[in-house]
Amino acid sequence: MKTVDEYYEYHVNRKELEITDPKQYDLYHKFDPKLHKQKYIHYLEVVIDKNGVVHYAVPSHQEYLIFECCRQMKLSRDEVLKKAPVYDFLDWLMKQTDLILVWSDNYLGKPNEKQKETLQMLIDEGLLEIEHL
After folding, report:
1. Is 131 part of a structural domain of the chain?
2. SS3 content of the chain, % helix, strand, coil (to 5)
3. Domain that holds residue 36
4. Integer angstrom CA distances of residue 51 from 6, 18, 90, 116, 117
5. What is the pTM of this model?
6. CB of 65 within 8 A of CB of 94?
7. What SS3 class is residue 33?
8. Residues contacting residue 58 through CB under 8 Å, at least 6 positions apart
């Protein structure tokens, strides 16, 4: 089983591959709004970090948050889960990681200015279907 650091390193390295063909593009590559629109129709499940960078929420929003929390806090998954409250679990994870969660028609979290800019880009690209932030 890979450690959190090994898993992170693998996905960071994979994200750096230069992909221009939508057929080769998948949820494990660096987010590209143009390629995303060509490959996926009415589908968006991502997180936006505090710097406004979009990451695919793989395998899910909750698991991505747990993974990031482990990485940032340098704790094991079990340690993070013991530390986390039972109620407002996602809110606690979002506060610990400074991530916001985004779907095709909604987002969850309180975005900072960079995250707001990225949300607006997703709206402008037609990937996030909400009227306003």
Report:
1. no
2. 45, 10, 45
3. 4-124
4. 23, 21, 20, 10, 10
5. 0.84
6. yes
7. helix
8. 27, 28, 64
In a domain, 130, yes or no: no
pLDDT in tens, 40-74: 888 999 999 999 999 999 989 999 999 999 999 99
One pLDDT digit (tens) per residue for the chain, 133 residues: 555 555 555 555 555 556 666 666 778 788 989 888 988 888 999 999 999 999 999 989 999 999 999 999 999 999 999 999 989 999 999 999 999 999 999 999 999 999 999 999 999 999 999 987 7
Secondary structure element (H or E) that encloses residue 45, with its range:
strand 45-48
H helices present in 2-112, as ranges: 4-15, 33-39, 61-73, 77-83, 89-97
Any domain includes 79: yes
Domain count, the chain: 1
Is 24 inside a domain boundary?
yes
